[in-house]
Design brief:
The chain contains 12 helices and no strands. The chain is an all-alpha fold. The radius of gyration is 17 Å and the shape is globular.
Length: about 200
């Protein structure tokens, strides 16, 4: 994480840069020992905020637990960016941070299909139990399920108690869904947030 934070801006290939940032965010939020997670995410917050190319770095920044400076940065991006996908991701991150509410997402006038699924993701961030029920009990489209899973796992707030539910619901999902959809859903909602020694 330190290496990526210190040197990723020097990488000249955008796809490599995106991959490195994605892996660093995943490492900092899931694999770094809990007592060092704050330090790892702080290093990435500092390294990613305001770095060019902004689109790549802002996408990665939105996936981190935000510090106040990064929340301010994403709030400004939300107000000024023309990139709809990035604005939705920033709003979702701000909802996860507690700076914005799900009502802000509901108030966005975006009749596109991206707007509809992005609202689902934002609502899932704010209401994990609702998201869990929608993912495991509804007949939503594959795209809707993907965005709901993203919202459910966007951060680890509100996920307490879902690990046991996962193991109870898994056989039912295998019976009810196609093999591909069951596998994708179960991989997506696997309780990575609850991994311990």
């Amino acid at each position: 994480v330190k290496l990526v934070a210190a040197h990723v801006a020097a990488e000249d290939q955008p796809t490599v840069k995106e991959r490195l940032l994605s892996q660093a965010v995943t490492a900092a939020t899931l694999y770094v020992a809990p007592e060092f997670r704050g330090e790892a995410t702080a290093q990435l917050n500092d390294a990613l905020r305001g770095t060019e190319p902004a689109l790549i770095f802002d996408r990665a920044l939105a996936r981190l637990p935000l510090d106040d400076a990064s929340a301010t940065h994403l709030s400004q991006l939300l107000d000024n960016s023309d990139n709809k996908e990035l604005r939705w991701l920033a709003l979702t991150a701000l909802i996860a941070h507690g700076t914005r509410s799900v009502d802000d997402a509901e108030a966005v006038n975006d009749p596109s299909s991206e707007g509809a699924v992005s609202k689902l993701r934002a609502r899932a961030v704010a209401n994990k139990r609702w998201a869990w029920e929608e993912i495991t009990r509804s007949d939503r489209s594959n795209l809707e399920i993907r965005y709901l899973i993203d919202g459910l796992t966007f951060n680890d707030e509100g996920l307490e108690g879902l690990s046991d539910k996962y193991f109870r619901i898994a056989p039912e999902l295998w019976d009810r869904l196609s093999n591909e959809m069951a596998q994708r859903t179960l991989e997506g909602i696997y309780p990575m947030w609850d991994i311990s020694e």
